[in-house]
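quick q for whoever's on today - can somebody do inverse folding on this one?? i tried earlier but teh output was garbage lol. C-alpha cells:
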C-alpha cells in the first residue's frame, strides 16, 4: 500500500472530529513537517462529503494548535492552550529525549529531562480539560520504556506512566520501536501502537550506499544482543538474507554506572567474511555496545558496516563514533528524526537521516477519519515494491 491509495481510502469516511495537532516545544520541527503534509493532502483531496457541514473545517491552512508552557522563576510551570479544542480530535506530539531545551530555575539554567517533558505533556492534557472529543498522544520514544520490568525491588515507571495518561483521558498512545511492546499490557483496554521504521531504514541504506546489494551473498543482518533479535529477524526475512546475533556476557558480581559491565560479545551466526553488514537496534545510547559489535565484526572480516537505530541518543557525545569512523569500523549510521538531532550530528559525513514526518502525517490523517492503520503498521508490501524497483533497475 502506498501513500496515494491510503489517502483515497480516507475519502469514504467523515472525520472523528476537527483535527488538531499540538506539537510541544520538544517536537516543534517534526510537528511542522507533519502539519505541512496534511495541509497539502487535504487541500488537494476531493472528499465526497466536502459540502457537508461536518467538513466545514476540513481543509485548513494549519492544524497546529497554539499551546504554551510558561515557567515561574521557581521552575514550576503551567499548560496554556490559546485556541479552541472543544470537540476536536487532538494529536499531541512530544519528544521526551530533547535535552536541548532549557528553562530557568532560581536564576540558573536547567536542561529539560524526560521527566520534565512528560510533566509538560500532562500539563497540556490538563489544560484541554476534557473538552476534546478524543486525545491521542504520539510519543516516539516511549517514556521510561527501558524500565519496563522488575529485576529487584524497583519501580515500574513505564507502566505507571501509561496508566496515568489513560486516567487523564488519553484514548490512544502511538510510539515507535518500543523497547518491550509487552508494556502495553498495563493498559489493555486502551489503544497502544508501536511502529517500526524498517521501511525507512531500507530506503536509507540505498541513500547511504546506492551500490548496496541486498541479497544473501552480499548482505547480512546483525542483532547486537538478544533483545533486538526480533527486529533483525524481520529485516533479514523481508530482504531474504541471513541473520546473526551477538549476546553479552556480563559480570554480574559488579555494578558500574548502574549496570553490570559487559565482559565479552559472543557471536552466533553464519560466516560474515566479505559481506556488508547491517546492525539494527532500537536505540544508540552511549554507543559502546554498537562500537564493540562493529569491532567484533571487523575481526571476522566483515565488509561495510551500517548501524541502524530508531533513536540516536548519543548520550556520551560523538567523539567515539568519529574515531571509530576514522578507523574504518563502520560505513554509515542511520537514525530517524523521531528524537532531537544535534546540529553536530547532522553535519557528520557518516550520518544518514531517515525522515518519519510523512509517515506520522499519514497515521494522523487516517486515524482522524477513524480508518484502520493496520496496513500502515505492516510495511511488508511497501518494502517488497521498493526492493523490486531497485533490484530491477
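ok took a stab at it. sequence:
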Amino acid at each position: 500500500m502506498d501513500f496515494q491509495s491510503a489517502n483515497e481510502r480516507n475519502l469514504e469516511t467523515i472525520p472523528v472530529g476537527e483535527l488538531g495537532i499540538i506539537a510541544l516545544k520538544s517536537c516543534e520541527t517534526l510537528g511542522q513537517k507533519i502539519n505541512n503534509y496534511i495541509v497539502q493532502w487535504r487541500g488537494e483531496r476531493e472528499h465526497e462529503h466536502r459540502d457537508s457541514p461536518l467538513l466545514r473545517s476540513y481543509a485548513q491552512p494549519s492544524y497546529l494548535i497554539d499551546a504554551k508552557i510558561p515557567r515561574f522563576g521557581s521552575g514550576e510551570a503551567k499548560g496554556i492552550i490559546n485556541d479552541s479544542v472543544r470537540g476536536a480530535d487532538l494529536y499531541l506530539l512530544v519528544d521526551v529525549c530533547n535535552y536541548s531545551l532549557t528553562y530557568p530555575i532560581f536564576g540558573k539554567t536547567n536542561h529539560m529531562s524526560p521527566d520534565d517533558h512528560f510533566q509538560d505533556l500532562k500539563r497540556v492534557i490538563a489544560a484541554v480539560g476534557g473538552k476534546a472529543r478524543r486525545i491521542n498522544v504520539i510519543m516516539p520514544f516511549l517514556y521510561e520504556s527501558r524500565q519496563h520490568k522488575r529485576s529487584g525491588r524497583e519501580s515500574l515507571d513505564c507502566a505507571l506512566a501509561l496508566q496515568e495518561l489513560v486516567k487523564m483521558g488519553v484514548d490512544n498512545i502511538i510510539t515507535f520501536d518500543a523497547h518491550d511492546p509487552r508494556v502495553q499490557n498495563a493498559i489493555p483496554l486502551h489503544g497502544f501502537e508501536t511502529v517500526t521504521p524498517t521501511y525507512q531504514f531500507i530506503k536509507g541504506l540505498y541513500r547511504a550506499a546506492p551500490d548496496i546489494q541486498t541479497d544473501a551473498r552480499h548482505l547480512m543482518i546483525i542483532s547486537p544482543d538478544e533483545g533486538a533479535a526480533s527486529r533483525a529477524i524481520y529485516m533479514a526475512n523481508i530482504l531474504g538474507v541471513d541473520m546473526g546475533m551477538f549476546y553479552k556476557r556480563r559480570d554480574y558480581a559488579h555494578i558500574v554506572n548502574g549496570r553490570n559491565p559487559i565482559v565479552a560479545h559472543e557471536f552466533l551466526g553464519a560466516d560474515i567474511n566479505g559481506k556488508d553488514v547491517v546492525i539494527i537496534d532500537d536505540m544508540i545510547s552511549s554507543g559502546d555496545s554498537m562500537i564493540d559489535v562493529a569491532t567484533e565484526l571487523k575481526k571476522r572480516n566483515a565488509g561495510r558496516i551500517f548501524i541502524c537505530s530508531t533513536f540516536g541518543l548519543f548520550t556520551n557525545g560523538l567523539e567515539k563514533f568519529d574515531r571509530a569512523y576514522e578507523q574504518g569500523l563502520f560505513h554509515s549510521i542511520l537514525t530517524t528524526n523521531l528524537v532531537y538531532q544535534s546540529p553536530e550530528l547532522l553535519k557528520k559525513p557518516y550520518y544518514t537521516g531517515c525522515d518519519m514526518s510523512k509517515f506520522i502525517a499519514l497515521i494522523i490523517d487516517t486515524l482522524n477519519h477513524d480508518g484502520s492503520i493496520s496496513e500502515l503498521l505492516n510495511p511488508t508490501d511497501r518494502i517488497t515494491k521498493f526492493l523490486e524497483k531497485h533490484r530491477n533497475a
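fwiw The longest helix spans residues 28-44. also Residues 1-10 have pLDDT under 50 and may be disordered. so keep that in mind when u check it
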